[in-house]
Specification:
The structure holds two protein chains of two kinds.
Chain A (H helix, E strand, L loop, with lengths): L2 H7 L6 H17 L6 H17 L1 H6 L4 H22 L14 H16 L4 H9 L1 H23 L9 H24 L18 H7 L4 H35 L2 H8 L1
Helix pairs in contact in A: 2-3, 3-5, 5-8, 5-11, 6-8, 6-9, 7-8, 9-11
Chain B lengths: L15 H11 L3 H5 L4 H30 L9 H35 L8 H20 L27 H29 L12 H33 L12 H35 L6 H15 L14 H29 L8 H24 L1 H7 L3 H31 L5 H28 L14 H32 L37 H6 L18 H28 L4 H5 L2 H26 L3 H31 L8 H33 L4 H33 L1
Helix pairs in contact in B: 3-4, 3-5, 3-15, 4-5, 4-6, 4-8, 4-13, 5-6, 6-7, 6-17, 7-8, 7-9, 7-17, 8-9, 8-10, 8-11, 8-13, 9-10, 10-11, 11-13, 11-14, 13-14, 14-15, 17-21, 17-22, 19-20, 19-22, 20-21, 21-22
Classes of the chains: A mainly alpha, B mainly alpha.
């Protein structure tokens, strides 16, 4: 098997994922009622990423063959799809009285986002998700839900539901640290995090290519997985932090300038 | 003693202010300086002490250069050379650059935000006095058998007892620990000051950039220094108690030291660079007569740098053999950090572009900073490419690179800042003619010393080796470098003379000699002890410009400006964040060494410790009930619950002691295995924190029974309570990782 063959053949042929994607797009279209809105692009991106994460070779390899593919899928489902979905929702007017987020709710949302990273990498759960289809389905759903809970205080469609920018920066930074710690552990750990990936049931016949052609030994595979969790995911948080800071400065601009040519 | 009451910082001083001023101005005795809690005097003490150590570190540099001036020289023995370059690096970083930047922050931050003092003046004094104490500890090693000689980063196993058998490294560890604790206390103070004591109208988005960058630096210090402290503690336990954290022959990992050191060490680079960026961001606009170009980008890129700085430490370890995958990830991260730094350079150039530039000595240094720092930054980017790093790491190319960053960057900015703010501190201008002589000697000497070292490094001359063979070109280039070093030394003499002479005979400065715009120029030079008679209204980023141009339309102050949080709460939360980093490192070290052993399960007793854990967790609940009692004014209920809390804490500590004794009897001591080393270190430090919490609670209880507890102390109790809950939460993690996990 060559790399091209792998990329062409290793697609999920089930109907569930495409069906989910199409119905999501349909539901969103109904909600928009034909109005043109650039937010739709966010939604499209979210659906495309969701599809790629589950049905493309990323999703297929994540099923017990390649730990790094699993990690990529994991990160897309927690860090990319949920914020894009939230950004795509139409802005609702801030009519309801401003009710600042309670500390308890914020802590819960934060724990959901960080827990999404940590819990599913406990060895038992990670192995189960890699090998048992219904567990994987449950994992996907839970990652999306926890991701939505985590990103809501940052990019909720209603401004009143968002954290103030400086608090949002702290919230994201703390999540970044928690994520980094896990990434470091996975990268440097001398033992296998998910033993399922050490002895894959290679239904695709891709293992010779991955191990010899790509040079992905078990250890290398786990290192890449850890580094993915460590570096790129932290960049997502870092960019979100900078966006929050940008929002903070934008709020402070005098109205005349904001209304004028600057933006 | 000065009167320091920051609560009334932003208000026009009451009648007590001028009275205190008179008292203060008369008080020029040495004791008044020793006992001071005035942020301005403490700032000046920092600067003078740092100048003293700068002279020592400079003399050490000259000794290095004398030894290296000619090939095969024997001015210094190899041992002496090792000690001197170690002391030079340690001195310059921990005793010169950091304290100088802290000194400027101390002097300027309260003035620039219109406050009367730092949030915690006494803590401020403590932070300062830890600094000379740390310096003394470091140099005490000279009397105790020899200075440390393992380099400023003390790589294990070289820094372990078999290879560094004198007490030098022990003193090095203690000194850096003391300095680290002082830095963290200073950082917490700066965070609390900036968060709670800003003048009305001075929102975060209007902060002068120097204050903003100092604030971000303080956060970096609070997060990065504890990592170093944890590593130092482990190294000390290795050296004094025969543990094996970093020694491979006992199962430890020398690479772990490098990881921990550079987790601190890379943010440290920005701890030394960001305040310098802030100084440049104040000097360039004033002498270009333009507001800074793209304030948001300068401020935002600072945050980006701070965030990225924690993710790139492994680029110091490309030569260690982390593997291509890790090298690649860190190379990308390291190159990314060049983007926000580059953005700043363009912002400064764009600020100068089309401005009415006045090349005073301060501006000369700021302009030279741009050039020198770009050289250092560019050579830094070459290091981000792992293959280039393998080629030139540990050569003089690296020495050239970081001196361009730390001297060409930070030191030039500090000189610019000195010429800029000296009039505010002393009331007199520094002499411009002497200043120019100082500037040109510095530029020539600095570039002569370090530019040639790029070539020496590419030719393969290794750093940290006491001499070199007579290869073609090496002798001449090294001689040039040594000549340059002596020119730099001359420039420092000129600078010190300029300061000394200008203090006596300098031209009086007036309040605002540079026509600057930030609040520190709105008061007298030097400022009175209470800083301001009246803080001008702040309606934009340039309050003094608004004052001089009443017709201009300043921005409206947002109406919903929230009241600042209580300063003790800000401080305790900052402290907790800092402590969390410390414990995360200890927990990670435990996990790292115990992932695949079952030592814990055979040595520990889950059930008994579980019972004592329940006591500790219950104490959080009882403390909450005590707080409730206090807030409702029920003294008896408060005292009772506080007493129960104290008792539960003591029971927990007794349980710990019982467990320790049992382990000792079973032959499990701190040096018996890596499990034991990590276990005792982690639980021991947690126990220390519980004990400190018990002491604090005990003081509160004593006050409660003495009837001295009023509304003001309820804020203190709240802060202690948060700390106590934090200690309990840490224990939940320790208990899960150490006890529960090993029995799963």
């Amino acid at each position: 098997m060559t790399t091209t063959e792998l990329l062409v053949s290793a697609w999920d042929r089930g109907v569930l994922v495409p069906l989910l994607c199409l119905s999501a797009l349909g539901a969103y279209g109904v909600k928009l009622r034909g109005r043109h809105d650039t937010r739709a692009l966010f939604f499209l991106a979210a659906v495309v990423l969701f599809f790629l994460a589950l049905a493309s070779p990323i999703g297929v390899l994540a099923r017990g063959i390649l730990f790094s593919a699993h990690m990529l899928q994991h990160l897309i489902l927690v860090l990319a799809v949920p914020p894009l979905v939230l950004l795509a929702l139409p802005r609702t007017a801030d009519e309801a009285p401003v009710r600042p987020m309670e500390p308890l709710g914020t802590t819960g949302a934060w724990l959901a986002g960080v827990g999404a990273m940590w819990i599913w990498h406990a060895r038992i759960l990670c192995n189960a998700a890699a090998t048992i289809p219904w567990v994987q389905g449950f994992q996907t759903a839970s990652l999306l839900v926890m991701g939505l809970a985590f990103w809501r205080p940052i990019v909720a469609s209603r401004h009143a539901d968002r954290l103030p920018p400086l608090a949002a920066m702290l919230y994201l930074f703390a999540a970044c640290v928690a994520c980094t710690v896990l990434g470091i552990l996975v990268t440097l750990s001398p033992v296998q995090v998910c033993t399922a990936y050490a002895h894959p049931s290679d239904t695709l016949g891709a293992l010779p290519l991955l191990r010899d052609g790509w040079g992905l030994t078990c250890k290398a595979d786990q290192e890449i997985g850890g580094l993915l969790m460590w570096v790129p995911s932290c960049l997502v948080y870092a960019f979100a932090i900078l966006a929050a800071l940008g929002r903070y400065y934008a709020e402070g601009r005098p109205a005349a300038v904001t209304a004028g040519g600057r933006r | 003693m000065t009167v320091a009451n920051p609560e009334v910082a932003a208000l026009p001083p009451s009648s007590a202010g001028p009275a205190a001023a008179v008292h203060h101005d008369d008080d020029r005795t040495a004791f008044a300086w020793v006992a001071t809690v005035d942020h301005k005097r403490i700032g000046i003490l920092y600067l003078l002490t740092a100048l003293f150590f700068f002279a020592i570190g400079g003399i050490e540099a000259l000794l290095i250069r004398v030894q290296l001036a000619r090939p095969n020289a024997h001015v210094l023995s190899p041992e002496a050379f090792n000690q001197i370059f170690t002391m030079h690096g340690t001195t310059m970083i921990f005793l010169v650059v950091m304290p100088t930047l802290v000194g400027f922050a101390n002097y300027l931050v309260p003035l620039m935000i219109g406050a009367r003092d730092m949030a915690f003046p006494r803590l401020n004094a403590l932070g300062y006095w830890l600094f000379p104490f740390g310096g003394l500890l470091l140099h005490w090693s000279l009397l105790a058998g020899g200075a440390p000689s393992a380099g400023w980063f003390s790589y294990a196993p070289l820094s372990e007892t078999p290879y560094s058998s004198t007490h030098g490294t022990d003193y090095w560890i203690l000194a850096i620990l003391v300095l680290g604790i002082g830095s963290v206390s200073g950082a917490i103070n700066i965070i609390a000051t900036v968060v709670t004591l800003r003048a009305p109208g001075l929102t975060i988005r209007r902060l002068p950039l120097f204050v903003w960058m100092t604030f971000v630096t303080a956060i970096l210090i609070a997060l990065a220094l504890p990592v170093l402290n944890a590593a130092l503690v482990m190294l000390l336990i290795d050296r004094r108690l025969d543990a094996h954290f970093f020694q491979a022959n006992g199962g430890g990992s020398a690479i772990l030291w490098q990881h921990l050191f550079w987790t601190f060490g890379h943010p440290e680079v920005y701890i030394m660079a960001l305040p310098a960026f802030g100084m440049i961001s104040e000097v360039i606009p004033v002498f270009s007569r333009k507001p800074i170009f793209g304030y948001e980008f300068v401020a935002g890129s600072t945050v980006a740098i701070a965030l990225l700085s924690f993710g790139v430490w492994a680029h110091h370890m490309f030569a260690v053999g982390l593997g291509h995958r890790a090298d690649l990830a860190f190379a990308i991260g390291s190159m990314m950090i060049a983007v926000p730094t580059g953005v700043k350079i363009f912002n400064w150039i764009a600020t100068m572009w089309g401005g009415v530039i006045r090349f005073s000595t301060a501006m000369l240094f700021a302009t030279a900073f741009l050039l020198e720092f770009v050289v250092g930054g560019l050579s830094g980017i070459t290091f981000a490419a792992a293959p280039i790093d393998w080629q030139v790491t540990d050569t003089y190319y690296l020495v050239a690179h970081f001196h361009y960053v730390l001297f060409g960057g930070t030191a030039f900015a500090i000189f610019a800042a000195t010429y800029y703010w000296f009039p505010k501190m002393s009331g007199r201008l520094l002499d411009e003619r002497w200043g120019r002589a100082h500037f040109w000697l510095t530029v020539v000497g600095f570039n002569l010393t370090f530019f040639v070292q790029h070539f020496l490094g590419i030719m393969g001359m290794p750093r940290r080796v006491f001499t070199y063979p007579d290869l073609p070109g090496w002798g001449a280039l090294n001689m040039a470098s040594t000549v340059g070093a002596f020119i730099m030394a001359a420039s420092v003499v000129v600078f010190v003379l300029n300061v000394a002479l200008s203090l006596r005979r300098g031209e009086p400065a007036g309040d605002n000699p540079w026509n600057a715009w930030t609040l520190e120029w709105a008061t007298t030079s030097p400022p009175s002890p209470h800083n301001f008679e009246r803080v001008p209204p702040v309606r934009s980023r340039r309050p003094l410009w608004d004052l001089a141009h009443p017709g201009s339309r300043p921005e409206a102050t947002p109406k919903n400006e929230a009241a600042p949080p209580d300063k003790s709460l800000v401080a305790v939360w900052s402290f907790i964040v800092s402590e969390t980093t410390f414990f995360v490192v200890l927990i990670l070290a435990y996990v790292f060494f115990n992932l695949s052993t079952k030592a814990a399960a055979s040595a520990l007793d889950l059930r008994t410790t579980g019972a004592f854990t329940a006591c500790l967790l219950a104490s959080s609940l009882t403390l909450h009930l005590a707080e409730k009692g206090l807030s409702r004014g029920k003294g008896a209920s408060f005292r009772a619950w506080l007493g129960v809390t104290l008792l539960l804490g003591i029971v927990f500590m007794a349980g710990q002691a019982r467990e320790y004794v049992g382990l000792f009897h079973a032959g499990v001591t701190v040096n018996s295995s890596l499990f034991a080393s990590t276990f005792f270190t982690l639980t021991g430090f947690h126990g220390l924190h519980v004990t400190l919490g018990l002491v604090a609670l005990g003081i509160m209880l004593r006050l409660a029974f003495g009837g001295d507890l009023d509304v003001r102390s309820s804020a203190a109790l709240k802060a202690i309570g948060i700390y106590w809950h934090f200690v309990d939460v840490v224990w939940i993690f320790v208990f899960s990782v150490v006890y529960v996990r090993s029995f799963l």
